[in-house]
């Protein structure tokens, strides 16, 4: 297979995977089980244990991160495809890379869900918080907005915006399968460091909210991949901080 045809197959496969994730979420959201995409309503499931709601949440979160975050990694995946194009195990290496990347986001989703569950337990035990639940949403907006101005945000963003140097730094040694997996994990960690605060906004609107997913996914793709994307971060931070402040002021 020549380079052009190989690239078309690669882009078609990634596109089909992302499209399948979007379609599954869209169908799920409009089905009788759509309410289970909202992490705040998982407790309504009539299960005898916590396993069912946790599994449903992780499935929804994995679909969401595949739909939103995988497209933002295409420049890195394309570089890796070229480097491994002549290897017989290239498909396996690419799969390990993607699995490592998505695995980081799934781990973050599990931790965030646990933290969110603890927060809901605290709200139920605190009459003031229960009566002023807007504080949590506004606080999340302020946190996400403030993080857009942080050094950590820009350090991680700059790493994500230099996929070639990133691959050359982490793709080395003789253990190809392990290195492919760890390359995905390392890229996932820097991507997480860049975008975790924006992803927290999904907890305020429901994991499967298609409109928010599209909006945030486009913003993160632009930040990471467009030549002028880095300049978007601070204006977005100002908008989020302003939005959070407006919510606070409207309750005084």
> What share of residues is helical?
over 70%
Residue runs with pLDDT of under 50 for 5 or more positions = none
Largest sheet: none
Structural domain tally: 1
The radius of gyration computed from the alpha-carbon positions, rounded to a whole number of angstroms, is 20 Å
Measured distance between first and last alpha carbons: 66 Å
What is the overall shape?
globular
Give a quick set of tags describing it.
mainly alpha; 12 helices; globular; 252 residues
3D structure, described in words:
The chain has 252 residues and is mainly alpha-helical. It has helices spanning 3-30, 51-68, 74-83, 90-125, 127-131, 134-147, 151-160, 163-170, 176-200, 202-205, 210-225, 233-249. The protein has one domain (3-249). It is built from twelve helices and no strands. Helix 1 (3-30) runs antiparallel to helix 3, helix 3 (74-83) packs across helix 8 and helix 7 crosses helix 9 (176-200). 29% of the residues are buried. The mean pLDDT is 85.
SSE layout and pairings?
Blueprint: H1 3-30, H2 51-68, H3 74-83, H4 90-125, H5 127-131, H6 134-147, H7 151-160, H8 163-170, H9 176-200, H10 202-205, H11 210-225, H12 233-249
Helix pairs in contact: 1-2, 1-3, 2-4, 3-8, 4-9, 6-9, 6-12, 7-9
